Amino acid sequence: MRLLLLLFIAVPIFEMWLLITVGRAIGALPTIGLVLLTAVVGLALLRRQGLSTVLRAQQKMQAGEMPAREMAEGIFLAVGGALLLTPGFFTDALGFACLIPGLRQLLLGRILRHVTVVRGPGFTPGGDPSGRGHQGPQSRDHDVIEGDYSREDERNRNRRDPD
Q: Which residue range forms the structural domain that includes residue 20?
């Protein structure tokens, strides 16, 4: 929690220092132009990468697979887009790192190594809708009671036989 608070204080201060330093070196208008240019280029890249990620996720879901990597990429893309809309060169660099496919894959690979994916119904190997897929009988959840049910028609339940 303290690290997050420190980041919320330190990053804007660093951004202001960097903008002032670049502004002194190349001038105010070119600095503003560079900030706007990175935002426009970043949003174009975000749109293209986002569409590609959504299409891959749809293909995996249609094949009965869990689109875990695509969901993680979507989070990275959203964070990258937000960082690119924040004025400044440091946040733009972080935003581009989230949007450039090679860097994003590298970051995702490192993060997903530490994440456990839980498979639910419809996203098991082989498309087994029961959600058990590759599990053996020992790992079966004993709190689940399987059964059938039927719903009575409201009219049949409330109908009274004439006396």
A: 11-120
List % helix, strand, coil for the chain (3-state, nearest 5): 70, 0, 30
- 82 located within any domain: yes
Confirm whether 157 is domain-assigned: no
Residue 118, C-beta contacts closer than 8 angstroms, at least 6 positions apart = none
For residue 14 the two structure tokens come to 């660093």
Cα dihedral 43, 45, 50, 51, rounded to 10, equals 110
The SS3 of residue 72 is helix
Tell me: the pLDDT tens digits for 48-104?
989 999 999 999 999 988 888 888 889 989 999 999 888 899 999 999 988 888 888
Nearest-angstrom CA–CA distance, 70 and 24: 42
